[in-house]
Amino acid sequence: MAMIHTAKAQVNALQVADSVSTDLYNAGNWKQLISYGDQLLVGGIDFTGLRLRIAYANFITGDYKHALKQYGVVLAKDPYNITARYYAYYCDKYLTDDLHATYNLSYLDKETLHKDGINTPLITDIQAETGIKQNNNINRDNASYSRIGIGNRIGWRLQLEQSVAYFNQDIFELYDIDRIRTTSLHLADQQKEYYAKLSFALSQNIAIIGSYHYLNTKFDSTVNNSNLGLIGLKYAGTYVDIQADADFGWLNKKSLEQYNAKLIYYPFGNFNLYTISRASVKQLNSARNFIFDQILGFKLIKNTWLESSVTLGNLDDYLDADGLYVYDGIDNTTFKCGEAAYYQLNNNVQLQLNYFYERKSDAYQSLKYDQNSVTVGIVWKF
């Protein structure tokens, strides 16, 4: 008899939870629905309809990370739940996780994709950036850097990013002829680069990444060909994303290994406020250095975001952004900080403006100097 009463009580509780959560959903009381739903889950009342309503309430209020958590629970039981897949796609898209966004689309039929006008182009985006680096060292001319990139969707779970880049700087050094007379040497530091990165979605939350970076460096009459690789694993959690990766290869005839751990924190489940922390251990030949990079970003006004960053440590031959950027200039950077602004012009185009200050050491003299860099960029998403 006690078991019958218990079963009836559970059925009644589920009926009440279903009725109340439906009323809150229909009334658009999103915050109250989230609070009520979370209380039910803590109390052990859990069913698909409730999860979907809580997820949608979080989606509407902009907490995409928490919405993904709820949709993930539904999809773990039913991978082909159309509602969960559909909104999980948009959550990942708004969090700029295009890889897992298309992973969700792989579970939707062509009719749904066509009906909702969801675009799945083979070319996902085109990027371009160019900048100038000015310094107060009379022996260094201004440096320039330019890069063009393209993204491709190879499959629902596989994406390829490629780019080519060019760096150029003129170097001037005094040369002692006979301890009385001196002359000036004019050396050119030029570098051509090719970069490719593959990302594969193993599951709803996990991705494996690999990249290759080739550099052709010409300094004076010396030419070096460098080859660098990266392998890593990414996990997207609730409010926190974690990545661990390792760089390895030969850079300008020097053996290089670099091990990185990165954590991205979204306190509100979106890009209204976020932090990116990255710790690296770099081993260059026999020298080992620890490098820490911290970024704080927030939404300033509509369509506009700002990022502040600081990098501490010896950046000689440091690899950043999954091996995309290589700090292998003739002079070592010992400190770096900067500010970046991002403006979303429309649904497809994002404009970028970056400023960086660097403290550098002259490779030939006991001299410290300052370098200021300004870079402008554009990303066009299809």
Structural commentary:
By secondary structure, this protein is of the alpha+beta class. The protein is elongated. β12 and β13 form a beta hairpin. It is built from seven helices and 16 strands. It has helices spanning 2-27, 30-42, 48-60, 64-77, 82-94, 98-105, 110-115; strands at residues 123-135, 143-153, 158-176, 182-201, 206-219, 222-236, 240-251, 254-265, 273-284, 287-301, 304-312, 318-320, 325-327, 332-344, 349-361, 368-381. α1 packs parallel to α3 (48-60) and α4 runs antiparallel to α5 (82-94). A 14-stranded antiparallel barrel has the order 1-2-3-4-5-6-7-8-9-10-11-14-15-16. Strands 12-13 form a two-stranded antiparallel sheet. The chain is 24% helix and 52% strand. The protein starts with a helix and ends with a strand. Mean pLDDT is 92; it is low at 177-183. The chain folds into two domains: 2-115, Tetratricopeptide repeat domain (Serine Threonine Protein Phosphatase 5, Tetratricopeptide repeat, Alpha Horseshoe); 123-381, Porin (Beta Barrel).
